[in-house]
Design a protein that fits this description.
By secondary structure, this protein is of the alpha/beta class. The protein has helices at residues 21-36, 60-76, 90-96, 109-119, 161-165, 173-185, 221-228, 249-254, 271-277, 286-296, 315-328, 355-378, and strands at 12-17, 40-42, 50-55, 80-84, 102-103, 143-147, 149-150, 169-170, 190-194, 209-212, 215-218, 234-237, 261-263, 301-308, 332-337, 384-393, 396-401, 412-415, 425-433, 438-442. The structure holds iron/sulfur cluster.
Length: 444
């Protein structure tokens, strides 16, 4: 077989894709991974060192076609891995062709890649060959971002992400769960779920049912959050637009399955401006939703971001935003002044707001929010909260509570204590607060 690699260094794989569009998507996933790892896909049995066949098992004629294709590949090449729907009937396949290298079911990308690695090792790449199984992580060992989708179906006028990354493509739920498990096994204690529009997870896949540990799971945020909640680590949700089904997440938070934390980028409170921004899920009464969420889960920490000085924003619009903030009493708020991004349609909107007015509005907003935040944090004095220790520096322990996402929210400062370990959870009692942070002592 090695002679087949005469003119190239990359190991070569032949690929036969049979069946419906869903199987085709599986094939694309496997092919992407093979190529990303440096395998070369070749168009003939002769040139391939190994052949992967993605089969169909839907109707009898499809089964027959798949079995024929396997037989042909074995005859022409000899080294064959079978995946796909027919692979779900592994016994039947093994019985017909005991000489196969491996047989896996549909959506089993990881198993297919494992089988390929076993029988045809990936090429040595100095940039990737020393990677741990969970891949490259740029975060500390104890927390990790879990990306569940790429792209976005919306067209907010200030944003060019859809132009850069395309429409929403949700990652298969079984894959997301396996990635999450791998991270947890590698020592991660907190998973931060991200995508451009986390609430929309699964829309593109029509909420297709996937599998995790032989269990059917819908490609839907509620199912994903519930399954992630079984992993025994903190699960934090980011970029959750307030679509109606977001209400289903709140009981999971109240039950302690996922963190009582929602990062909902609202961007504004003036309906006129939200329309000009073309924001998703901006209908309905957000204040009423928030009130109901807090009724079900009183510990819920709400984070949001806002843009001030969007073209056409009047003083009245801005004041509407301040009133909203007073009423919503959000826990964490980020604020940006509008800045035109090359290629964004908002650049063509009339009535740009002068730079000094944008700055002044941001300062006013942050001042108000600092007061709200300080008042809300003060209520925590005397409470015992669970924290995750991020660092110990010069006798100071730096941790975060469920209300604090890394990098963007506040911190919990704890007097040094030998029992506290970076990357581990601890119970602490809050003794002091300021505008953004908590000060606490370990509870023994
Ligand atoms: S701001 Fe978010 S929701 Fe809007 S288009 Fe950009 S990525 Fe999509």
């Amino acid at each position: 077989m090695a002679s087949r690699r005469a003119s190239y260094d990359s190991p070569t794989v032949g690929f036969v894709s049979l069946g419906c569009p869903k199987a085709l998507v599986d094939s694309e996933q496997i092919l992407s991974r093979l190529q990303a790892e440096g395998y070369r896909i070749v168009p003939s049995y002769d040139a391939a060192e190994l052949v992967v066949i993605n089969t169909c098992g839907f109707i009898d004629s499809a089964i027959e076609e798949s079995l024929d294709a396997i037989g042909e590949a074995l005859e022409q090449n000899g080294r064959v891995i079978v995946t796909g729907c027919l692979g779900a009937r592994a016994e039947q396949v093994w019985e017909a062709y005991p000489e196969l290298l491996a047989v896996t079911g549909p959506h089993a990308y990881t198993e297919v890649m494992d089988a390929v690695h076993r029988h045809l090792p990936a090429p040595h790449d100095p940039f990737t060959s020393l990677l741990p199984s969970q891949g490259i992580k740029l975060t500390p060992r104890h927390y990790a971002y879990l990306k569940i989708a790429e792209g976005c179906n919306h067209r907010c006028t200030f944003c060019i992400i859809p132009q850069l990354r395309g429409d929403l493509v949700s990652y298969p739920i079984g894959e997301v769960m396996r990635q999450a498990e791998t991270l947890v096994q590698a020592g991660v204690r907190e998973l931060l779920v991200i995508s451009q529009d986390t609430s929309a997870y699964g829309v593109d896949a029509k909420y297709r049912t996937g599998f995790w540990k032989c269990r059917p799971l819908k490609t839907h945020l509620t199912a994903l959050a519930g399954a992630l909640g079984e992993l025994g680590v903190w699960i934090r949700l980011h970029y959750v637009y307030p679509y109606p089904h977001v209400d289903e997440l709140i009981p999971l938070m109240a039950e302690g399955k996922i963190l009582p934390y929602l990062d909902v980028p609202l961007q504004h409170a003036s309906p006129r401006l939200l329309k000009a921004m073309k924001r998703p899920a901006n209908s309905g009464d957000t204040l009423e939703r928030i009130r109901r969420w807090r009724e079900i889960c009183p510990d819920l920490a709400l984070r949001s971001t806002f843009i001030v000085g969007f073209p056409g924003e009047t003083e009245a619009d801005f004041e509407q935003l301040l009133v909203f903030l007073e009423e919503a009493q959000l826990d964490r708020v980020g604020c940006f002044t509008y800045s035109p991004v090359e290629g964004a349609t908002a650049n063509q909107l009339p009535n740009p707001v002068p730079e000094e007015v944008r700055q002044e509005r941001m300062e006013r907003l942050m001042e108000l929010q600092a007061d709200i935040s300080a008042t809300r944090l003060r209520r925590k004095i005397g409470q015992t909260v669970e924290v995750l220790v991020d660092a110990i520096e010069d006798g100071q322990v730096i941790a975060r509570s469920s209300a604090d996402a890394p990098e963007i929210d506040g911190l919990v400062y704890i007097a040094d204590d030998e029992e506290l370990v970076v990357g581990e959870f601890a119970q602490v009692k809050v003794i002091e607060t300021d505008e953004h942070d908590l000060y606490a002592v370990r509870v023994t």
